[in-house]
Design brief:
NAD, 3-OHacyl-CoA_DH, oxidoreductase activity, acting on the CH-OH group of donors, NAD or NADP as acceptor, 6PGD_dom2, globular, 3-hydroxybutyryl-CoA dehydrogenase
């Protein structure tokens, strides 16, 4: 099966990497050629890391890269695809427009999947003429490492498409878990309120950044504290998901913390902007609390 992946950011290049590594011919699509070049560089570095760990041979790396082709044209990139995975920015209107275009350009029998972490698959499917072929494939970051794929059935998604996507996920060495289409699905419906509560605890002065993360790492066996994880995900993404939960479920417990809102408005988005709850310096792995939150 030929696979097309839309979006060459962190999630898109990870999804393309995994499909190509497992024998699929992959078209990686982005409107920005420099972004595609960066994505291919990232994939190459990640493959080199796998080779260094003896998880992959040099021949496997070469074969994987040989299965990847980049496109700046959506129409050209999805021609002949049996599966399209959209991994664009978590923006409702952008995703809806992509799926309108996919419905026009992708083969009639192609499965159209979204890597959305919270947006309704039913809503996305409704802008197409093939809602039974639209499904969610929510990969976890970093995609080459994380085993879970949250498979989300929209209201009209067929059993056949769901079963095929579950099987494809297993072919990638992943563990697919089927969930129904409600705001936040399972992963983010549970994760985002925890992150939001950690931010509220900081906002209300219950404890500092490092202290909150230490409690969760050492007390709850989390590999990463919630504030560091929020930085890693992107505070703008966390805010967008919380707003989907708040609006979609109508429950005030999902209302985003004012501190999170202010940080996003100020451009403090976490690791990708260089500062969130922690400060990030290129080439350094040291975890340094942002100056604003030092006690």
């Amino acid at each position: 099966m030929n696979v097309a992946v839309i979006g060459s950011g962190t999630m898109g290049n990870g999804i393309a990497h995994v499909f190509a590594q497992h024998g699929f011919t992959v078209a990686l699509i982005d409107i920005n050629q420099p972004a595609l070049d960066r994505a291919m560089g990232t994939i190459t570095k990640n493959l080199d890391r796998q080779v260094a760990k003896a998880a992959l041979s040099e021949d496997d790396k070469t074969a994987t890269l040989g299965r990847l082709t980049t496109f700046t044209s959506l129409e050209e990139g999805v021609a002949g695809a049996g599966l399209v995975v959209e991994a664009a920015t978590e923006n409702v209107e952008l995703k809806l427009q992509i799926f309108r275009d996919l419905d026009q350009y992708a083969p009639a029998d192609a499965i159209l999947a979204s890597n959305t972490s919270s947006i309704s698959i039913t809503k996305i499917a409704a802008v197409t003429k093939r809602p039974q072929q639209v499904i969610g494939m929510h990969f976890m970051n970093p995609v080459p490492v994380m085993k879970l794929v949250e498979v989300i059935r929209g209201y009209a998604t067929s059993d056949a498409v769901t079963n095929q996507v579950m099987d494809l996920s297993r072919q990638l060495g992943k563990t697919p878990t089927e969930v129904n289409d409600y705001p936040g699905f399972v992963a983010n419906r549970i994760l985002m309120p925890m992150i939001n509560e950690a931010i509220i605890s900081l906002f209300e002065g219950v404890a500092g950044v490092e202290e909150i993360d230490t409690v969760m790492k050492l007390g709850m066996a989390h590999p990463m504290g919630p504030l560091q994880l929020a930085d890693f995900i992107g505070l703008d993404v966390c805010l967008a998901i919380l707003r989907v939960l708040h609006e979609g479920l109508g429950n005030p417990k999902y209302a985003p913390c004012p501190l999170l809102v202010n940080m996003v408005m100020a451009g403090r988005l976490g690791a990708k902007s260089g500062e969130g709850f922690y400060q990030y310096t290129a080439g350094s792995k040291e975890l340094v609390v942002a100056e604003r939150f030092r006690r």
